[in-house]
Amino acid sequence: MNSTAVCEDGKVRCQWCTATPEYIAYHDKEWGYPVDDDIRLFEKITLESFQSGLSWRTILAKRENFRAVFAGFDYNKVAAFGENDIMRLLADSGIVRHRKKIEAAINNAQQAKLIVKEYGSLAAYFWRFEPNQTTLATPQSISVSDVSKALSKDLKKKGWKFVGPTTVYAFMQAMGLINDHAEYCAYRDEVQKAREKFNKPKTIAI
C-alpha cells in the first residue's frame, strides 16, 4: 500500500492525513516535530490515552474542549482534581466522557509531578527513550516498537495508566521522538531538519 498521497494543493503527504481535512494542518504543523514543552507532552500523552478505542479525528475535534476543562493540561492543576471535577468532566459533552480515562488523566498528572521531581522535566524523562535512528523500521510500517514497549513498561511501573505500547508509540510519533513521516512525504525532510536542530533535554539535578 502506498503510504503517501498527492493532495489538492499538489503536495505529497502521508496517506493517513488525507482521511479528513482537519488532519492536514495537524500533519503539516505539529505531527513529528520535536517537543520539549512539558505541558504539550502531558497534553499529548493524555489525549492519546483518551483516544484508546477511538479515532484521532474524534479527539482532535474535541481538543480545545479538553484543554478548557483540563486546565490547559497543566499537570500541577490536574493533579489536584477531585471527585467534584470528575463529575464535572463526566457531565461535559465536549470531551470523551469515560470515568476510567478521566481518573487515569488525574492519576497520571500526579505521577508526572513525581517524574519532574526526579528528572527535572517530563521532556528530560521522555527523551531518554528516543530510539537509535539507524535501527528504526520503515516509516509507518509498525504501530508498536521495542522502545515504545520499554517506555510503556516504565510508565506503568511508575504508576501511570492507559499508556499501553501502541498509545505510547503514537505519542512518540507525534512528539518527534521519531520521524515517522513517509519517505516521500513533503514534510519528512522539514521534520528531520527540526530534529537535527533540536537540543535534546537533559536531566536537571534538583
From TrEMBL:
The keyword Hydrolase applies. It comes from the Bacteria. This is DNA-3-methyladenine glycosylase I. One of its GO terms (molecular function) is DNA-3-methyladenine glycosylase activity. InterPro entries: Adenine_glyco, DNA-3mA_glycosylase, DNA_glycosylase. Keywords: Glycosidase, Hydrolase. It holds the Pfam family Adenine_glyco. Its EC number is 3.2.2.20. It is an enzyme of class 3 (hydrolase).
